[in-house]
User: Fold Adenosine deaminase domain-containing protein from Sarocladium strictum.
Amino acid sequence: MDSFTISPFIADLPKVELHIHIEGTLQPALRWKLAQRNQVPLRWRDQEYNTFEELVESYHVTYNHRPEQGGRKDVPTFLEAYFAGCEVLLEEDDFYELAMEYLERCQDMNVRYVEPFFDIQAHTRRGVKAEDVLNGYARAQKDGVRKFGVHSNWIFCFLRDEPVEDGEKAYETARPWARIKGGKGLFHAVGLASNAYERPPSLFKRAFERARKDGLHTTTHCDFGQKDTHEHIRQAIFDLGVERIDHGLDVLDRDELIEGLLEKDIGLTLCPHAYHRRTATEVLFPKLRELLDEGVKFCINSDDPVYMHNVWIDGNMEKMMQYCKLTREEMVGLVRNSIDMSWAEDRVKKFIHAELDSIDVGIY
Ligand code: HPA
Ligand code: ZN
Assistant:
């Protein structure tokens, strides 16, 4: 599942990524380096990773279990692994290096523009200063364009399984780094991340209204197969009025949800490999095909590639193309969706559309 060959067509395709958590790009080598530099032990509960090899081995788990729903408890859940990874991130430079490593990889994968999610609370609750997180990313945002030609506008995430008021406070702290009048322009949107179990989007209605008043865009995770998934999607579309939904694949079960998406022109940021971890090929990919046929707008993304078998946006696109038997033209169409769904500046959008115009989608 993890060693998917990337075809030259997919490798060369100019790309846009709208659903990736920056902390989910922390690779074992950088995690190891930062652990040494910051003197942080590497572990999950009482399991310690004392050598680099042991650390690398720990990534081979398939995080497809949900303990709240009766899944196994002897290995970390995906989110536990992700937050354990965060423990090595302490100083501004750590956040900068994390982001620069990702943006450099974007250049290698021909990702031209990206809207990374970032957490504040995952770090401040460990004693890290919010300004160190924000300044590290803001510096990388600028250097990423200069050094790698990769443009980025970032998305602040509320941790939905923490008290709403804590998220609201985190937003106020981060606000001077937002794309608002007099702000530093790091982030231009807010989203909802972490564990959705019994944490419906409507809990964050006031927080989202505040961000919207600031002129920011809004999106929210509605995880595939999560408890109450249809109600979460309904709230996202009709109560919160978000502009995009992250995942949201379960819309297929309810005509009224599909109609809501089409009517309000809400697109889904999908991450096929994330679902493939817990869904059979012959179940998942026909669903994705069905979404296309229903005319639902969506784009292809990677979510947390390091914790998902190192499958990045190119691997996700490759899977989509092969398992859904999509033509080159259809793949280019999915990239155009990601441009249209993005909140990039018009000149960035035009530039990537123009690059796509010159791609040969003919006989092959
Ligand atoms: N889902 C929800 N929250 C997250 C994720 C995810 O995949 N990654 C980081 N925070
Ligand atoms: Zn996500």
About this structure: Residues 21, 24, 82, 193-194, 221, 303-304 surround hypoxanthine (ligand 1) (CB under 6 Å). The chain has 16 helices and twelve strands.
